[in-house]
Each structure stands twice: as C-alpha cells, then as structure tokens.
Amino acid sequence: MPVDPPETKDGIRDFWQHWDYLLSMVPELAEFGVPILDAVGLTLNEAILAENDIGRIKATDVLIDKGTRVVPRMLSLLTGMGITKVMARPNPRVLVMALSDRAIPASYLAAGQAQEGGAQAHRMEYIFNSPDHLLTTISEQLVRADLVVTVGGLGEGGVDFRAIADQIGPNDFTPVAVSPGRDHGFVLAEEKIPLLALPADVYPAFVLTKLLLEPMIAKLMGASTDPAMSVAYLAQPLRIAPHILTCVPATVRDSRMRISGRPHGLEGMNEIYRANALAILASEDGVVDLDSEAFYQPLT
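The structure assignment produced for this chain is given below.
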C-alpha cells in the first residue's frame, strides 16, 4: 500500500485508525468550472465570500463553505452576488458488483446508499465461479468508475474475491475492530482506483456503507468526511464486546435511544428499514449502563 498501515493488536486493527488509513488513499476528483444551474448536486471547490458590507454581512465573510453541496436555495444567493459560474467537483461514478446470490440484497442497499450520498451509482451482478472472468470484468469496468464496491466473495460461496485481489492492485484485508463488518477489504485497483470489498450479508454491509462508503464518496467530491454524529441516552442497559466498535440500528425519540437487537435475515432488513439511527457504541469492559450517552448517526 502507498500508505503505511496502522498497527494491530492481536491481529485486529482499531476501527478509527483504519478509517483514517483508508480515507487517506481515496483521491479527490478534479475540479471544473460549471454554470450554477448545472452545479446543483455537485460540491463546491471554493468558498463563496461576501465582497462588500451589507447589513450584518461583512466583506470577506464566508457565506458558503468550500466542500458544500450545491442546493437550489443557494442559487438566488449566488446570482444576487453576480456569480453565474462556480468551481465544483463532479458526482463520483460508483460501480457496485454483487459477487453471489446471497449478496444481491446488500448490493442494492450499497448502490442506493452511494446514490443518496451524491454518486452516480451503477449496479451489476457477477454470479459465476470463475476468478479469471471476474478479474477481466473488473478490469474492463475500471474505466467507467471512480470507486468500485464489491459485495460478497469473502467466503460465503461462489468466487473468492481475495484470491484475485493481488492481481487487481495493492490490498488490505486485515480484520478490523468493528461489529458487524470485521471482515472486509480495500484494494487500490491499478494502484489508483479505490475498491471497497464488503461482506454479502445486509447488516454488516449496511454498517460499512455508512461508516466507510459514504465518507469515501464525500472525499471524492471534496466534501467533509467527518461522520455526522448525534448523542442520545440509552433507554436500556446493554452488553457488547469489549474494545469493539459495535453498531446497531436503533430508534431515537426525545433524546432516548432504544435498541431492539442485532438484526439478521428478512426480519433484520425490516429492523434496518424502520430504524432512524445507527447506534455506534464502545466500552472497555463490555457494559453500557442505562442512561449512558450513546453516539449515533441519524438515518434518513
């Protein structure tokens, strides 16, 4: 890898060190000048500053931050300032590949999350037990992608993606201290295009799309990669694995968080759909007390 990997403890890597490590290898896409109407949905690569004092607005005040996604209500502000063209980054092209029948539901989820995050997502299924054919397929698709996501192929049957990873580019499949999602991988295809290898099951794939895929898309767009975290208070005591970042769909109402359990199968897909938060929990001794502060990512 072009970046030195973080150290591990007992063969497991800390999740947030892993997060920094992977994001450091995702490039930003090239900027280009675009008329403001065509910029809606793109990410600004420049801060918009006030040129004069106007009421409470002072000259040089930042009105729109660099890395902000352009939305329609910005356009009146821009045109009011005489700006009709901005420097922006394009929406990344993300290819999502299902590598087994079992991975198909999770591949749709990953493609949808990519699209919601601002990417142009394309999904395809590769359900063949031929590593050479898969290698050829990925190589042919790289010219159409800024980021590739494979779903499955990590031991659940069918082709084993790890068997061909070395032929695609530098790669890292080190286990990571996150549950679910411990086993996933990252490849720099042709040493330049990031490839995120997700497990086939929906629950870990969902967690990793929120924690890794969405920030990768944001990095490509030049937007902020910081996770959007909120805080609530647990309505129940919990036991989780010590020293492992544990992620569970949850419901938050009036700053109280309730967790129904770790979802699996179709019932689990329903739990993920009905949740309005992804709880992100950690504990040194595995005990999370009633009324403890708990971080979560809001789900839309």
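Interim note for the steering committee: The chain has three domains: 8-28+91-220, 32-89, 230-298. The two ends are 35 Å apart (CA to CA).
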